[in-house]
């Protein structure tokens, strides 16, 4: 699906997504990634939400989000309980949704100036 959101050219905006690719600004991402308004971490190691482990969280925590969106491919799936608990212990909210919903929600929250990180999985 393609969509456009007006905004600052210095802010990462998700332009489109499919089962094979996520377009963030002018970049084409074909693997799991983490995106915030200012940062893009491409080729993030876990291939699916079920593969996230505690060491993978350091990259996300360094970004200091107030909310982490998990875009879990074609259907909604939840991160392991230990991962959700690790974020909750630090006062960071989490939401899990399918990839499309996560992309749309990310763009809205970024346009509102929220400190959000989207952790996006193609599968």
Protein topology:
Blueprint: E1 14-17, E2 22-24, E3 27-29, E4 33-35, E5 40-41, H1 57-62, E6 67-72, H2 81-89, E7 93-97, H3 99-111, E8 116-121
Parallel strand pairs: 6-7, 6-8
Antiparallel strand pairs: 1-2, 2-3, 4-5, 4-8
Walk me through the structure.
- This protein has helices spanning 57-62, 81-89, 99-111; strands at 14-17, 22-24, 27-29, 33-35, 40-41, 67-72, 93-97, 116-121.
- It is α/β, with parallel strands linked by helices.
- The longest helix has 13 residues, at 99-111.
- The chain is globular, with a radius of gyration of 13 Å.
| Total number of strands | 8
CA-atom Rg in angstroms: 13 Å
Biggest sheet: strands side by side, in what order?
5-4-8-6-7
What count of helical segments does DSSP give? Answer: 3
Low-confidence stretches: none
Major β-sheet annotation: 5 strands, mixed
Overall pLDDT: 93
How far from one another are the termini? Answer: 16 Å
Q: Give the H and E element order.
A: EEEEEHEHEHE
Percent range for β-strand residues: 25-35%
| Quaternary organization | single chain
Task: Look at the helices and sheets and give the structural class.
Answer: alpha/beta
Specify the overall morphology: globular
Q: Provide the helix percentage.
A: 10-25%
What are the defining features of this structure?
single chain; 123 residues; alpha/beta; five-stranded mixed beta sheet; three-stranded antiparallel beta sheet; 3 helices; 23% helix; globular
